[in-house]
Amino acid sequence: MLEHRDNPPGGGAAGSGAAGRRDNSLSRDPGRVADRVAATLALHGVRAAFGMPGGEVVTLVDALDRAGIPFHLARHETQAALMAAGESTVSGGPGLLVTTLGPGLANAVNGIADAAQERVPLIVLSGVVDRATRGRYTHQVIDHARLLAPLVKGSFELGPEGAAAVVARAIRLATAAPMGPVHLDLSPEVAAAASPEPGPVALARAAAPRIAPDDPVILELADRIDRAERPLVIAGFEAARHPEAGCVRAFLETLGAPVITTYKAKGLLPEDRAPALGAAGLSPRADAALRELVDRADLMLLLGYDPIEMRAGWLDALGDPGRIVAVSAAPADHGMHTVGLAVTADLGALASALTPRVTAKPFWTDGGPARVRSRLAAIFAGPEGWGPHAVFETLNALAGDALVTVDSGAHRILMSQKWTARRPLTLLQSAGFCTMAAALPLAIGAAVAAPGRRVIAVMGDGGLEMGIGELATLRDLGLPVTIVVLQDRALSLIALKQAAAGLGPRGVALGPTDFPAVARAFGGHGIAAHDAPTLARALREAEARAGFTLIACGIDADAYERAF
């Protein structure tokens, strides 16, 4: 939707040309409200902004630049929100999305919803019509707060007084567990006004006392672990992205119990060795194997785990609440299962206190976890020859220390099971909201946050076609991202569901897009791969290339049948 780009300057939202120019007539006074807003964002770790500008936010974009927060132009606001999510996940700071009013913010709704379900601390800054004319003026005017009410943790309009304090409040709210998006409206008149605030507003210095090893809860957990014969850990994204994830890993390694993760927590423990069992959540075949351990465990520790990533087959799957202990910074809001003991605590501090109390001993003496590991390896070994299995095996062998993103679809489920993650936060995806076309913007955000780090986006042809305009963003930002497209000319996951329901394929066929030619048209390098050696060669060449590379891997749509 481009309706919000075609208004003349000075009337409604300005065109993209007006937004892209540095207007020397704008106030150069660093004491504008917009400057206080930007400086406060920078003070609290915001390092990049993503969005599509309009006339209502030109002063804000100027102020962000002054504060050292570069504005990255996306081609769609939802993609910009996902870029901010990728940047936030890699940098650890809040993400920032900037949109104009009306259709600009409305375009971003899917990306903001993704941030809500993916627990991204996203600040959404939108332009709004000046208050003096808002009561009479209706062009492009909608109630932003009501539009976003189900998706954000709070929505505030910034006024000339206290704007920086409200921004600080928004950051505090966005980064509090469970993290999520917060929305701020800023009108052009307020943005350009002189600010009565003397400077940016800092948050209070956080001081969380460490949990003592002799805390009664620690003693109870240590006793339950000591008495367990078949303990099992299910770890989630909160554990993987914790600033002290190393303390969590140290506890798990000392404990030695088998560990299942969600898809986004892959790599919390290196998956190429025990006790890691890989991920659960969307693959019925993997879940059936892992449920053997879930059903037999006499103690389950849920560490930073939110079942928002799990499919409906996990409803009530954990069984007896008396054997379940959940530890998280804030209780998850769900009805998937109940637990006997819910510990609300900082996960790193609790792990640090509990580790000295844990004595490694032989668990699961019947070898159950080893059998499940072998079963999973056999399930996902895959057929000989070319297909999605070969694509992921080749990527696994050559990706090295790359940050990898993967889009929603059949390929994501299979890849999340086959992919061997050795470090946390190295496989990024939309796993709670499962939105399509997420991999490319997540990769762009990750590349902005980690310049010099190799970034690879894995997509299906349907997802790429949905957000193909962001190839221009890659070109303009000069990011050497590698895009691997599994081109099966179908929405394969939906086709599988249609077949499972006894229905024929309807509305899932895709045409034969020449993706290498499209990549070249957008200023990148494009190549087609129909075998593993060609893919391997293309991946090696892409790593040395300055611009982006798109590798189109033609595969058969039926390659996913019984693959997961």
Automatic annotation (TrEMBL):
Keyword Transferase appears in the UniProt entry: yes
Protein name: Thiamine pyrophosphate-binding protein
Family matches, as SUPFAM superfamilies: DHS-like NAD/FAD-binding domain, Thiamin diphosphate-binding fold (THDP-binding)
The organism's place on the tree of life at top rank: Bacteria
Keywords: Thiamine pyrophosphate, Transferase
Organism encoding this protein: Amaricoccus solimangrovi
GO cellular-component term (any): acetolactate synthase complex
GO biological process: isoleucine biosynthetic process; L-valine biosynthetic process
Bias kind Gly residues: ranges: 9-18
Xref: InterPro entries: DHS-like_NAD/FAD-binding_dom, THDP-binding, Thiamin_PyroP_enz_cen_dom, Thiamin_PyroP_enz_TPP-bd_dom, TPP-bd_CS, TPP_enz, TPP_enzyme_TPP-bd
Similarity field: Belongs to the TPP enzyme family.
Domain Thiamine pyrophosphate enzyme central: 220-354
Region (Disordered): 1-30
UniProt domain Thiamine pyrophosphate enzyme N-terminal TPP-binding: residue ranges: 32-145
Residue ranges, compositional bias (Basic and acidic residues): 20-30
GO molecular function: acetolactate synthase activity; flavin adenine dinucleotide binding; magnesium ion binding; thiamine pyrophosphate binding
A Pfam family it matches: TPP_enzyme_M
Signal sequence residues: none
Domain Thiamine pyrophosphate enzyme TPP-binding: 407-552
